[in-house]
Amino acid sequence: MEEMSMRYVSKFLLGIYLFFLLWLILFKLSFNLPQFLTYSYSNV
User: Fold this and answer.
1) What are phi and psi of 2, to 5 degrees?
2) What pLDDT does residue 16 have?
């Protein structure tokens, strides 16, 4: 029983970690996107 709950907790933490990582990447992309677009457009 204890082993099962530990596995569940580790899966839960991994899910939270992956979700946080994805959110961070999306936040960074959305933050850098306008700058990147203006940079690429000004270069053309």
Assistant:
1) -65, -40
2) 97
